[in-house]
């Protein structure tokens, strides 16, 4: 929702849960991720002098090609996402 731009209604339909439930748990997860205990233990932003990992540099067809200007990812894990279609673009737009 925050990253994909989907609405609570879309996520609720996808996972077959009410909008209330989706909203409640989205907020809970977001609060946990922002909690100082979690944040300081697991979120480490790379310094400008840190080298780019070899597995990213070596795979020029995937990682480096698409992530060359990215600062980093949580735990070095890349999350699989899909792009929305042109038809869904307007309904999936973040209006906040």
UniProtKB/TrEMBL annotation:
InterPro entries for this protein: DUF8040 (IPR058353), HARBI1-like (IPR045249)
Pfam families: DUF8040 (PF26138)
Limits of the DUF8040 domain: 4-34
PANTHER family the UniProt entry points to: OS08G0106900 PROTEIN (PTHR22930:SF259), PTHR22930
Protein's name in the database: DUF8040 domain-containing protein
């Amino acid at each position: 929702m925050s990253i994909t731009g989907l609405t609570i209604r879309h996520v609720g339909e996808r996972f077959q849960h009410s909008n209330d439930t989706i909203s409640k748990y989205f907020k809970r997860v977001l609060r946990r991720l922002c909690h100082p205990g979690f944040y300081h233990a697991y979120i480490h932003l790379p310094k400008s002098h840190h080298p780019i990992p070899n597995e990213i540099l070596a795979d020029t067809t995937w990682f480096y090609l698409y992530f060359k200007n990215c600062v980093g990812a949580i735990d070095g894990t890349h999350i699989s996402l899909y792009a929305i279609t042109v038809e869904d673009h307007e309904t999936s737009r973040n209006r906040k």
